[in-house]
Structure formats: C-alpha cells, structure tokens
Amino acid sequence: MEGFMCKTPAIADIVILVDGSWSIGRINFRLVRTFLENLVRAFSVDFDKTRIGLAQYSGDPRIEWHLNTHSSKEAVIEAVKNLPYKGGNTLTGLALTFILENSFKPESGSRPGVPKIGILITDGKSQDDVIPPAQSLKDAGIELFAIGVKNADENELKAIASPPEETHVYNVADFSVMSDIVEGLTKGVCDRVDQLDKQIKDSLAPPRDLVIADITARSFRVTWTHATGQVEKYRVVYYPASGGQPEEKVVQGTDNSVELNYLNSLTEYQVAVFAIYRSSASQALRGSATTLALPSVNNLELHDITHSTMRVRWRAAIGATGYMILYAPLTEGESADEKEVKVADSVNEVELEGLSPDTEYTVTVYAMYGEEASDPMTSQETTLPLIPARNLRFSEVDHSSARLTWESASRLVRGYRVMYVKTNGVQTTEVDVGKVTTYLLKNLTSLTEYTVGVFAIYDEGEAEAVTESFTTKVVPDPLDLKSSDITAESFRVSWQHPALVDSNVNTYKITGLSPDSEYEVLLAAIYANEIESDEVILVENTEVGFIFCLSKTTNKHHNDEHLLCFQRTVPPAQNSIVLQPLLSDTEYKITLIPVYPEGDGPVASQVGRTLPLSAPKNLRVSEEWYNRFRISWDVPPSPTMGYRVVYQPLSAPGPALETFVGEDVNTMLIVNLLSGTEYSVKVIASYTTGSSEALSGRAKTLYLGVTNLSTYQVRMTSVCAQWQTHRHASAYRAVIQPLQKQEIRLGAGSNLHCFSNLKPNTEYKISVYAQLQDGTEGPAATATVKTCEAPTKPPATTPLPTIPAAKEVCRAAKADLVFLVDGSWSIGDDNFLKIIRFLYSTVGALDRIGPDGTQVAIAQFSDDARTEFKLNSYTNKERLLDAVNKISYKGGNTKTGRAIQHVKENIFTAEGGVRRGIPNVLVVLTDGRSQDDVNKVSKEMQMEGYIVFAIGFADADYGELVSIASKPSDRHVFFVDDLDAFQKIEEKLVTFVCEAATATCPSVPMSGILFVLVFLGFRMMELFGLVEDRYNSIYGVSMVPGTFNAFPSFHLHSNALLAQPTRFIHPEGLPSDYTISLLFRLLHDTPEEPFALWEILNKNNEPLAGVILDNGGKTLTFFNNDYKGDFQTVTFEGPEIKKLFFGSFHKLHVAISKTSAKVFVDCKMVSERSINAAGNITTEGLEVLGRMVRSRGNKDNSATFQLQNFDIVCSTSWASRDKCCELPGLRKEAECPALPKACTCTQDSKGPPGPPGVPVSHTHTHSNPIQLH
User: Fold this and answer.
1) Which has the closest alpha carbon to 856: 837, 832, 887, 881?
2) Residues 823-850: pLDDT tens digits?
3) For residue 206, is the peptide bond before it cis, meaning its omega torsion is within 30 degrees of 0?
4) In angstroms, rounded to a whole number, what is the distance separating the alpha carbons of residues 1068 and 917?
5) Cβ neighbours, 10 Å, residue 447
C-alpha cells in the first residue's frame, strides 16, 4: 500500500537530527535508516521545493549532509541508506544548538521566507540541558517535532517539541514499531508546513511613503512609514543610477529613518527599502535623489612672504575631508612643474617652502571630499629677493690679523663667504665661513690696507656683498726682559709676549756658564709669517759654588774609612741637599767646603747615622669568612719597597703561600682558604738594602659545614638523610657511596634527600657538603647506614608468562606509546609490584615492537620524573618485557604536572626515538591528586595532538584525570578503587589504546572556530618544515606577513620545489574521506601555466593525487586513482573559483569522500562533482608543493606563490565547520579564537551573575498509545 504523500504546494527546509549514541546499537540503527527513508518519500524533494538536511549526534554532533547538498529525493534516500552509525554519549542539548548554528544558515541551504522544520529522533534522556537550546530554535521560527524510542524521556520530548504536543510529540516502545508513526508524523509536518507558509506570506508587508530630504553633496536622509507586522529590521540598499556597486545599511525595526553618507556629489542615486521579518523580507519601497555639488574654499589669502616661502590661508569648507594645494611659478616660456600639498580637514593654513627668490607664483586650493575635489580657488604673489649681510665692522686689528663682524641677513641664510684683497693688489682670497657673523683674518702683511666683502649664501643662491676697508699695524717687540735663578753655572731669563706671538714659551734657562762671569743676552720676537721684531738686550753675572765631602766612620773617634768628595753648585739661598744611596744603620761624616774665585773657604763638618731596616707593627685580623680573612698592619717609619705576606695552615703540612704588595699597601684580603682552619701569618718589609724581621700572628676562617646529619626511612633499596641547614649556604651536595656513587645538588632550603636504586643489606656512607654562592664548598658531614635485607620469600604472585600473546586488536598497531607511572610513597612496595604486572600485561598485548610497529617508553615520577627507558631503547618484545620487570620503586611526593612536562621534553623527542606521522600516545597512572599544576601542560599536550589516557585509583582526583586526558572522557579516562581491580579495565584500555595506535591519521588541533577542536589529520606545514623556527634552512623559501601580522606566511620562490618522502608524511597512505585545507595567495609573478599546489608522486615521478591550479584558464582540478586503479580528474570553474586567482589570500577546502569532491572557497561551498571511491597510494614516492604540470619529465620546476596554512583533515565535515577566522573580511570576533599574542580573557575569568530567568512551566500530556502485536 502506498504511504502518505504531502501534496501541499508549500515548500519547507527540514533538518532531521538523529541520535547516534551507543545505546541505539548497530541493528536498531538499520531500523532508524528505514524510518528515515519512509519519512523522506512523503515529500517532494528538489532544489526549489522541499529541502532535507540531516545531522547525527552523540558526544559531539556532525553534519551528515546540508539542506543544499542533495537536489533530488533519490539522492537523499541514497544518502540515508549509506548513513554511518556514529556511537558515543547522548548530548541532545549540544546537538540542538549545533543545528541552529550550522544547518539553518543561508550558506547551508536555508532559505528566507520558507517554513523551517526540525525533527529529533532519540532513544534516551539527554546528558545535558535541552530546554534553552530548544527554545532558541523556536525563537528563531523553527518548528520542532520530537520522536522518542524505547528509553526516551517523554517529559523531555515535550519540552523540546513545539506545541501542540498531540501533533509534535511521538514516543514508541521499540525501534521495530517506528514505521507505525511515519504516516502520522508526515501528515503533521505537511499540515504545519502549509500553515506556516500562509502565515509567512500574510506577514510580509513592505514599508510605505518614501521621503528623501536633507540633501547635501555627500549625503541625504531617507524616511518611510512603518510596514505592518513584526518587523525586526529595515534594509536600505542604494547605488548610483548610472551603475555601480550597491551598498546597504540595516536599522532596527523600530526606526523609520536613516542618513546615507559618503555619497558622490552631483550623482543620482536609486534607493530601495526592505522590511526584514524573522525569516524573510518584504518587497522593496523604491525612490531616487540627486546629490548637490561640493562646496569650495573662500577668502584665499597669501601672506608672510619671504624670498623662499609664503603662507596660504583660506576659510574652511563645510564637510570637507581635506584640502589639496597646487602651486607653480609663472614663467614666460614653458610651464614649470606644478607641486602639490595635501592637508587634513582641520587645517586651513599652510606654508609653502622651497620657492625661488623674486619669482611670481600662482597658488590654487581645492576642498577634497574623499577622492572628489571641489571647484578651485586661485591667487598669485611674488617672493622677495635675497637679503644681503649688513653693518660690516673691524676689530682686534694688529700687524698680521683683524677680526670681521657683521649682522645676519636672514634666518634662512645657509652660510657666508668672505672675500678680501690688498687694496693695491690683484690676488683675491675667498673663505666659506659657515653660518657665523664673525671671522678672524690671519697672515696679513703689516702696515697694509685691505678691502673685504661678505656675501650671504642661501639655498637659492648668493646675495649682494657688503664691503669695507682697514689697514694693519706695525710689528711689536718683546716686553719686560729680566733674569732670575742666578747660580755659578746658569741663570734664567723671562719676558712678556708682544701681541699675536704664536708661542706659549716666555722663559729660558741658560746653562754651562762659568762662575763669576758677565754675560749679554739678546731677544727678538718671531711671528707666524717669519717676521722678526727689533732685539732687546740684558746683561747678567754668574755666582760662586760649594764642594761636598762624605766619609764613612770606622770607630768611635770618627776616623774616616773612606772619603768621597764631589762639587755641586747651588744658588746662594739653597741650604740643604739629599745624599743617596747610603747603607742602613751606618754612621757618616759630612764636610762642606765653599769655593770662591780667590780659592776655597773655611771647612764645616758634621757626623750622622742612617736608620735601621724597621719591621711593620700591630698585625690585626678582620672580615673573617668561610674562605677568606683580612690582615692589616702599621707601616714602619722608614720608606720601604713593599711587603712580603706569608701564610700557611697550622694543621695541614706543605709549603707556605707567599705574595708581595706595594709600599703604599697596609692591608690585604687573603682568599681561597680552607673553612674552619687556623693559619699562621707573617708580614715582612722589603728595603733596597734587605728585608726587615717578620711581624707574625694567627687567623682562623669560619666553619662551613652542616650539622646533625642523620638517616631515616631505611628500606631495601632506598634511604633518606636529613640535616640542620647552614645559615649562609646557597646549595648542598649530597653523595652516597661506595657502590654505585650517587650525587645530587640541592637548593639552599633543602634539609633532606632520599636515595633510591640501592642494593639490599649493604652499608653506605652518606656525605653532605654545604656550598656558598661563589662555589666554595665546606667539609663533609658524614653518616653511615645499612639498607634492609631482602625478604627471604618473594610475594605470592602468579608467575608472569614469558612472552604474552598479542591481542587481535593490536595486530596493526603502530604508535609511539609512553607509560607515565606514579612512584610516590603512597603507592607502597606491594602495590608497585601490581603496577609492574599491569604494565607487563598491557605491553604484552602489543604485536610488533620497534620502528616497524609500536615503540614503548616508561617513566616513573614522584617529586621529579625518571626515564626508565626511551622509545628507541628496545626493538623486540622479550627484551622490552624484561626491562619492565626490572623497574625499581622510586618513592617521593606526587608532582604529576612536572612529570608530564618531562615526558614531553625528554621522551617525545627525536633523540628519544619519536617518529614523524605516527600517533603519540601517553598513558598516565596515578593514585592521588597532584601537588603541582597539571592543567597547563595537559592542555598543551592535547593542543599539540598527543592522545592521552588517564588511569586513576585509590585517592586519585577524577576531575584532574579528566583535565589530563584527551576528549571524549568516556574513552580516555579510567578509574578503579584499587590496583586489584585493574583487570576490569585492562581489556577496554588495551582496545582503546590499540585503536588509537592503529589510526591512519594522527590527532591535530584545528582552531578555525571559537573552540579549538582536536581532529584526526596531518599538519602539512610542519611536515614540510614551513614553521618559524625551521623555514630558514629550506632553499628558496622566505617568511613574510600573512593575513594578519600575527600569522606568518611563507613565500615559495621559483627555485623552491619543496618535497618530502610520502612514507614520512602519510606512512599508512591517505584515508578514504578527507579534506584538503589550504590558505594561500597567488602573486604577480605566479606563472600562467598550470601547477600543483600539492601532489603525491610515485617513485617514477608519476602523479597519484593532488590539486592543480591553472592561472591562465582560471580553473581548479583535483585528481587521484580510483579503487579500480583508473586515473580520474574533476575540474571546477566559475566566478567563485576565479576569486582564487585575483592576488588576495583565500582559503580553499577540497572535501573528498567515497562519492564526491566538494570545493569550498572562503568557507562557502561553491561546487560539487561526483567521483569514484579512491584506491590507496604507494608510500614509495614523494609529496611536493608548487610543482609545474609541464615538468612531468626528469626536470622539475616550481611555481611562485604564498602559503599560510595547509592541513589535511581526516573528515569531510571540517570545511562546513571552519569559520575562516584567518581572513580579515570574514573574521567574526565572537566566533573566532583570539589572535596569537592578543590579550584575552580565559575561561576562568568570570563576570558578575546575570538577572534570574523566568521560571519554566511544563505541561504533561500523553501521546496516542501504540498497539504491539
């Protein structure tokens, strides 16, 4: 029997929301598909008739197809038959919001003025709130029908559905009887579509009485009478009647007037006003108006005119956005170049500079209105001639020089030129003196007349000269010649300089003269030009001298041992002399004999003694420290050459240390000493004739060492030590020996440390050293301790199998797997053995171990993390399991955040063995809440694509486990009461881990929407090395700004040709469904010939898959090999495709499924082509960027273009979810994540609470019972 067919001519947009949670099951989901087929058959489905879209949800919703995806009933039914089962939780509220934001949108095929229907099918109660999302849909004019099956909550269905419940709520006891409600549902939907269509058409009245007033050159006001009905907004569209791009303004439905600004002057505009209702728009109310001419400037005035500038002033024009000034000299010949000045609208006066002197200029001013100019206003004026210098004067005139002074001509003078000449001569001298008003003329001839001219120099040229004359003076003689310091052999002459002598010498000592003789001195002044003055004469006599005799006495009667006589002449006023060098502590006899011209005078004698070699006195010690002290002493009365300082520890044998200091030093800081040690110190004075006796003393350094060292928590393989801290220590060094020496450096606040990995029943010596900031280390404090004996019998546990068999689900697993194990004190020895057994069993479930399969690493953590072994440590299962059994218990506190950071920085590294393109999986096991922050590093791990599982037991915090693990939590978080219950989760954990390790695509975060989502896919920019810290090592690539300054873009030059082995990027090949996402732009030098943005080649350089741009033909082509091995291509063209070739950044999505290839340009779907399902690719080849199509032979060439983003996402839904937040023209801040380095609020930043909402009342009704047979 034929089913019900909806015959109404009204059309609708129907979106079906299907529950795909685990509770439905695959068998029941087949019945859901049958129900959907029958539902679709009841409607006339076509592109211009009823459209049907479908979304499926569980933990997260997804679009299966949009309203505009299929244009026939047969295509929709075929899509229903192939609808995949999703699986997951039941979050109905999230799904309702999802279809409001994604399905009922114009870009998804939703049409204005067409009834909107939403149909929900669910089998259980939602795990989130459904009432606000359902109300949002109703508020948006969407009629909701709710169908419940089996365990659905009827009250929840009624809360979701639109009234009345009798026709909008359906509930059946089982999936097998869903077919019984198809006819009732389709009739209800059909009737409601008909009713809604009539309501929409009755409510769309246009506005009336269009009035255009307040017309100016750049604007006018549009006013209208309100349309009837619930108008939400008015849309005003306007454009030039002669043709041009339409523009629009949108105002609220309560407004009936708007001013249109920034119009062109003297232009007729067409205006249309539309009333916008909730889901449609009215017909237009139309009219036209012509703008006025632009106002020009008034009262143009030229003033403050100089030889090179003039000021222009005018009265401002109302509404002008700026002014343009044009000026040029008036010449009889060819017209001179016209110059232009533009100023802002706030400026009505400007100075024109760089004008030619004594020149007439014409000046024209325009008022600017955007790019338009008003009528001009013009005036003429002439610049002034150049102003000469004034008032030339002379001063400081002598025989060879004179100073010139003049007054400045103008502030615009660039400098002056001085020209002078002998009045009766012909040779002229010129000097450029700069911007000064005084200058000294030198090297002139005495008693000569000179004529001087001064020229003012401007940028524009030279002014006329100002001239005057002067005469130089006679050459002057030296002054005041006199003698002084007269001796028997010499005397000094001195004088005063005459003016302008170029010398600073005014005295001279004449030596080598004879005693008691008369001498005549002649002195003349010599000037710079070698002119000499007349001579001045002085007559002077020398004096007499003395003979000194010095002898060393040999006995108390002063008999002479040796006699030394020498003659020394001194002035009569001198009465002392120093005799040196002499012997210390020795008596000498001194004899003085005067010498006269007539002979020797009477003799005078005296006996004296030199001082002994005195030692320093009063040794003092100060500034005692752990490695130094200072000594000071009093210096002896006799002058010394310096001091020897000798010091040595009293308790340590060995040579003494010695240093020498200068004669002016009486204190010294002795450093690099032993702490707590007494030293002997000696200070010895050094003289030219020997050394003094030693000044001796003692000094002691402070003690640098810890005290009260003791041990505690002594176990089989570990022991702890504690001590009393030293008040000045900046660090401690703790050492345990004699077996395997362990050494660690601890901070200043540390007073304990625990050593692990020790041998049972073994005696150890623990030493602790205190250290200062400068590295000085004190003596060791030591303690001995013996570890506990091992138990005589091992714990009663089931023997571990030698090599466990691999589980089937893990046969194809290929991942880098890290276990991070809690080894804190709260675990205990017995429980740690259970953790080891769990690790042994879990790792044993894997199949291939090593680079060709799964690599395994294990780290243990407490206060810090310890890598037990790295990913590349073992390549077979037997050795790996043996290493697991040998892991020893660590002990300590619980610092999970630090441990996860350790794994990220030290294990998931190239040195640690991590591989490219392979899933990175982390399994964290812990029994308690972390004592540090785990949120930041966990978020980083998830954002960077790591798959994280969290296993908690005993006192673990479930909320913390959720923040550590990847999403969804029901797949990545496990919790058991104790370690004995590990077996309950082991099977499920192994399955989930191996499924993650088997995935063709790794996890990658995608940030094209407000909330960052983790998708499976490939970050192609990173895989090709196009990131900030790696691009500079790639030939032919440079980094330039992208769509925003915060986003880098990479310029691929013609010699780049980037290539990577396919086995590194896609080691498992391409997935069956995927989206190629590229953000790029073509450049002016991008070749016209076709090139591949990206393509995969086999080892013979033959193309397997890729995307080709034809810059000449403006087309886009995708190609691959289908499942039969046939080469297939699909080409896209049209206006939206042509945008890619206009030189701007564009975002391109190519979504490839088993049946079609869809192209999205700037997050808008523009075309779809049918294709066959793809076959897989070979990994024995290359993936390349920018390869020219014509270089299919042996020689490859590359195209020039810029690339900002490139991802391959293992899903076809990403293109419809991406918001193109990287494109400035499409970016909506409310829907996009913050730009890099932007200041944003976090989810923890909470504002004040809002007002309380209106209470919601629930009406309980019952739907018709279903009879079961």
Assistant:
1) 881
2) 988 888 888 888 898 899 888 888 889 9
3) no
4) 9
5) 10
